[in-house]
Design brief:
The complex is a heterodimer of chains A (114) and B (110). With 114 residues, chain A is mostly beta strands. Chain A contains no helices and eleven strands. In chain A, strands 2, 4, 5, 6, 9, 10 and 11 form a seven-stranded mixed sheet that branches. A four-stranded antiparallel sheet of chain A has the order 1-3-8-7, with no helix packed on it. Chain B is globular and about 40 Å long. The chains are: A mainly beta (114), B mainly beta (110).
Chain lengths: 114, 110
């Protein structure tokens, strides 16, 4: 099982501010993901990475950007926050175990943009 | 048609009963199937995975996979109020990302 950490857990910030949501995992997983989820709604994949220096956009268009300079670290950045960015952001990583990749989630960051 | 479909619920069962959650998928190349439990306001928690046709049991949970019919189900025996949550089905095609269903809300009534 993976240990995945996200900070901050809660963030309230004003429109136009630049924010970075941190995600770290200690298990050496190659694959990492960012999902966005509104309350009671579906998970949407917004970014993923298959390893260092590898990043791709997910299925849902997002104004955020990501970087993967170290295996354990996969931060997500919003250059200029807007109220439409208010949501829960979930980081996940996956590990090859038992024949296939199993994905584990961090605790999430709940972002509110005022 | 969505790639992974689930009945949104809510599915209500009395305490002690068997809860049956179903998931269908469209990609016949899907190879791996996962069930996650998500409590309100929390992140999804992996509870079971299954790769082969048939049943897989883990405690009170049984996952059932039928690739010919393209469905996977989760049975929860002796349901408890603490099982009340949203259950997400996830499917993976080899070499591709996970695809999550919309989830089924389960309510276990005391």
């Amino acid at each position: 099982e993976a240990d995945i950490y996200q900070t901050p857990r809660y963030l309230v910030i004003g429109t136009g501010k630049k924010i970075t949501l941190e995600c770290s995992q200690t298990m050496g997983h190659d694959k990492m993901y960012w999902y966005q989820q509104d309350p009671g709604m579906e998970l949407h994949l917004i970014h993923y990475s298959y390893g260092v220096n590898s990043t791709e956009k997910g299925d849902l268009s997002s104004e955020s950007t990501v970087s993967r300079i170290r295996t354990e670290h996969f931060p997500l950045t919003l250059e200029s926050a807007r109220p439409s960015h208010t949501s829960q952001y979930l980081c996940a990583s996956s590990d090859l175990a038992g024949g296939d990749y199993e994905q584990y989630f961090g605790p999430g960051t709940r972002l509110t943009v005022t | 048609q969505k790639e992974v479909e689930q009945n949104s619920g809510p599915l209500s069962v009395p305490e002690g009963a068997i809860a049956s959650l179903n998931c269908t998928y469209s990609d016949r190349g899907s190879q791996s199937f996962f069930w996650y439990r998500q409590y309100s306001g929390k992140s999804p928690e992996l509870i079971m995975f299954i790769y082969s046709n048939g049943d897989k049991e883990d405690g009170r949970f049984t996952a059932q996979l039928n690739k010919a019919s393209q469905y996977v189900s989760l049975l929860i025996r002796d349901s408890q109020p603490s099982d009340s949550a949203t259950y997400l089905c996830a499917v993976r095609v080899y070499g591709q990302n996970f695809v999550f269903g919309p989830g089924t809300r389960l309510s276990v009534l005391p």
